[in-house]
Task: structure prediction
Amino acid sequence: MTEYSLMTDYIIETEALTKRFSDKVALNQCELKIPVGGIHALIGANGAGKSTLFRILLGLEKQTTGSCKILGHDSQALTPELRGKIGYVNEEHTLPVWMTAAEVTNMQRNLYPQWRQDIYDSVIGHFDVQPNQKVAQLSRGERAGLNLSMALAQAPDVLILDEPTLGLDVVAKQAFLEALMYTETDVNTTI
Result:
């Protein structure tokens, strides 16, 4: 861990975290402590609040009550430097469709000073993505592979995955998971 001090053994920590949307409670007094290192999973039915939790962790949404920390800091007060240590891949695999895979990758490379080209090359090799292909021409599995490759190449301290293999075929899902396992052991990212 660099440039910040983790005052706890937990990379993610919530206390009495609650999120309400009008009359609906998405998270109710959520208590979570995820230690540094390894691969961890949150399992729950659709609508259980997993994506809401991730949006709060990323500082994209504010909780109703309680506290939420990532990398030892309040998720609502993350600096650009701390955000650069968090990778995120969601089920939509949203990317600018008018750009080529190479253009999107170059844009990401310029945003993350710890970019690891060796990781990008290794992970993208599991998928049939050509640099000159427009994102709009990529299959769902290829978009997933491109997203994962870029997220892992950021060399994040923590990588949040929100159902990234949803809708992928068996071959793409296997490639995605193999790439993920390789990276967790190679760069000690908490997933």
Summary: The mean pLDDT is 86. The first helix runs from residue 50 to 57. Strands lie at 10-21, 24-35, 65-70, 73-74, 86-90, 158-162.
